[in-house]
Every structure is written in C-alpha cells, then in structure tokens.
Q: What sequence folds into this?
C-alpha cells in the first residue's frame, strides 16, 4: 500500500512541474513588426518593397499602401528594406512599429541616350525601344564598316553584307521589313543631320539592298554610305526601334532610326590617340575565264553591256 501512495505522489509532482519545465526550455516567440515604407523626397508610399530579417530568408513585401507586417521577428534582429531604384536600408527591430524612408539610388538614374535633334534624354522616360552601343565596342569589333560593327550588339537587328572584300556594302533591317520592293533600312542621323545609307546600285533596280522581292539588282558589290564613316570618330550609336521612332523624325523613320553621335573635343590637357589597322587579302584561286567571245551582244561589240557575245577583239 505504501508503494501505491508513493507512486501516486511522484506522478502528481511530475504533472505539477512539467508545464513550468517546458516553459523554461521553449524559446520565447518573436513579436510582429509593422510599419510603412515611403520615399525620402516625395513621402509617397512605395509598394513591393522587400522586407527581410537579415541573415535569414524570412521576409515579406509592402502592399499597395506601402504597409508591411512581419511576424515572428526574433529579439535583436535587423530588418533589411530593399527595392529597385532605391538604396537598401537596414534598421534594428527595436519596436513593434518601424517606419522607413528610402532614398533614390542616383547611380542608376543618370543613363541618357541621344534622340532627335541631338538632344539627350533620360532613357527611362522614352516610350520607344532604345539600345545604345558605345564607340569603344565598335572599335573592338575591328570592322571598317560601322553597319557591320552593329552585328550581334543590338537585339532585333538583321545586317546583310554584300561581300567580304574591302569596301563592300552592308544593309540593316530592324525588326523585319515592311515593304517588298521599297527600302527597309532605318534612317541614319549623324549629329542631327540625316544621311542616306543606300548604295548607288540600289537606286537603279528594285530590291538592290534591303528589299524582300528576291531580286539581286546588282552583279557587283557596292559600298553603302554609312561605310564612309570612320569608327574611330564615333562616340556612340543609338538604335531607335518601332513606329514610335517616326514620332521623332517623321515618316522616313518608320523603319527605325540609327542616331550617331561623333566625338568632340573636351577641355583639359591636350592628348593625341593614334591607332593603325592593316589587312591583307590574298586570292586563293581565280576562276577560269573564256577567251572565245568579247564584250557585246548579237555578235557586235557594245561597251555598255555586261554580256559577252561579241567577236574576240583582235
């Protein structure tokens, strides 16, 4: 009987002490931190701001009103507030309510591009697709024709070269053509001056360069006018895509526009940069030519034709 009383006493003591013991071993639950995130200048709410407990993946985001609520924040934790275009802010979670003001990151807001009339504009304010290629990238391509230098550097641009010989022409089409027989090339603008990029042969036959009617229009290569530009003289090239480019330059820019800004002098110490490039082409094999007929047609000499149906010159 004494053993039964002793067992019952021990069970009762364990039941009385267990809640206290478990309360001492369980970590206290973190509190909920709430607040509002606004801009430091206009004091307007910023939605979508990431709020994370530093060193963990526990976090949340602000709602449309810029408010957030983050539960189970451990004592002594630090909250990190981050958003694109703003500088990240770290604040210790010392109170249940924590309001934060984010300052704009000026380093990412000064990207400008050159548009119509050689005017620089903030890239974020433009409604048309814009891509810019710096002059250094054009020089590194080692292309003597600036049109060929754009190959692979601008998305949605198709560049076709008439050949690999020095002085060969190149045509450029942005986002596909809009005409079968007409010129599909964009408008070229150099320091505010409009330039025609077509070749001499394109004006004599339809489809000589950028048309899609399948006609070659020429039997020999002809240089394009943009090939006259020295890549060393170009500071940047801005490619304007889409119909919105026509709003800047009119109907001639319906196929887009390529705005070229040349280098200019700057104040300071006088410097001189010189770079030389030499290329050598060697013919591997020449085609076999016939000597039976001379230039002409219908058995008569004609110096204006490309046919060879005249007697061999004596």
A:
């Amino acid at each position: 009987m004494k053993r039964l009383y002793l067992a019952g006493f021990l069970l009762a003591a364990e039941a009385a002490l267990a809640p206290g013991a478990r309360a001492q071993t369980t970590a206290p639950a973190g509190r909920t931190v709430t607040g509002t995130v606004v801009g430091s200048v206009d004091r307007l709410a910023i939605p979508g701001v990431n709020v994370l407990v530093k060193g963990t993946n526990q976090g949340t985001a602000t709602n449309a009103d810029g408010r957030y609520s983050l539960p189970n924040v451990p004592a002594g934790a630090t909250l990190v507030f981050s958003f694109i275009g703003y500088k990240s802010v770290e604040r210790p979670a010392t109170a249940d309510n924590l309001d934060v003001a984010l300052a704009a990151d000026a380093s990412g807001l000064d990207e400008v591009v050159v548009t119509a009339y050689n005017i620089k504009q903030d890239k974020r304010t433009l409604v048309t697709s814009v891509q810019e290629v710096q002059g250094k990238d054009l020089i590194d391509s080692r292309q003597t024709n600036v049109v060929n230098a754009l190959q692979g550097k601008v998305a949605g641009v198709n560049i076709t070269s008439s050949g690999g010989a020095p002085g060969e022409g190149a045509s450029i089409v942005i986002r596909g053509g809009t005409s079968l027989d007409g010129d599909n090339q964009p408008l070229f603008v150099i320091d505010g001056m409009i330039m025609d990029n077509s070749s001499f042969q394109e004006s004599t036959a339809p489809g000589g360069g950028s048309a899609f009617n399948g006609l070659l229009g020429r039997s020999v290569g002809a240089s394009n006018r943009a090939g006259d530009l020295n890549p060393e003289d170009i500071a940047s090239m801005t490619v304007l895509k889409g119909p919105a480019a026509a709003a800047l330059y009119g109907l001639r820019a319906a196929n887009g526009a390529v705005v070229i800004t040349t280098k200019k002098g700057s104040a300071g110490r006088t410097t001189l940069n010189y770079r030389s490039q030499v290329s050598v082409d060697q013919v591997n094999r020449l085609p076999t030519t016939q000597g039976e007929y001379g230039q002409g047609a219908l058995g008569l000499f004609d110096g204006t034709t490309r046919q060879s149906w005249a007697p061999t010159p004596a």
Notes: The chain has two domains: 31-106, 112-262. DSSP finds four helices and 20 strands in the chain.
